[in-house]
Amino acid sequence: RKELSMYGDVDGPEIRAQMLLTHLFPFRTAKFYFGDVCRETTNWILISETIPFSRRGRVENGKVVEQVEYEPYQILPVCG
Prior knowledge:
By secondary structure, the protein is an alpha+beta fold. It has helices at 2-7, 12-20; strands at 32-37, 44-48, 58-60, 63-66. The strands form two sheets. It has a two-stranded antiparallel sheet.
């Protein structure tokens, strides 16, 4: 990991995109609050607003027990 940080910046573009480019995207993104990369340890942090994911339906014993209908442009629930 440290070698990657010395020869190619793989984490910096994520933070720079959040800082400089998200206002240009044709869709809404989470608001950027803070981002930093430690070049010595290659640790990085990106703090953004909470994303209001939708509620998931319930599945019990492989059968859908509760189905949730989603509106257009509504943020879908996280997979998994």
